Amino acid sequence: MPSNKGLLVRIEARAEHAEEVAALLAGALDAARAEERTVTWFAFREGPTVFGIFDTFADDAGRAAHLEGPIAAALMEVAPRLLASGPSISAVDVLAAKPS
User: Which CA distances in Å does 59 have to 13, 29, 34, 45?
Assistant: First the structure.
């Protein structure tokens, strides 16, 4: 499997900033596309104030590079103002996938 390393990020916005968080995540797509080591990247909304990101990488180095990249930096910069709490970031191993 070419992308067996992943990240699952859960983000809870302050209610008054939910749409701003949604726009931030949607606007991060171009940055994700520019990351050579990021194989897949998904931003999603789970509820009115709960969001998430799921992305995959070929190896641990790609995952580490992403965590040091512009998307993570932008999220951490706005976290104190826009989020109810810090993002929950979990490193995961992808066991099976069906790519498009």
Answer: 30, 21, 17, 26
Three-class secondary structure of residue 27 per DSSP: helix
Per-residue pLDDT of the chain (100 residues; tens, 9 = 90+): 478 999 999 999 999 999 999 999 999 999 999 999 999 999 999 999 999 999 999 999 999 999 999 999 999 999 999 999 999 999 999 999 887 7
Q: Which two tokens stand for residue 95?
A: 């066991």
Helices (H), the chain: 18-27, 29-34, 60-67, 70-82
Element (DSSP H or E) covering residue 56: strand 50-57
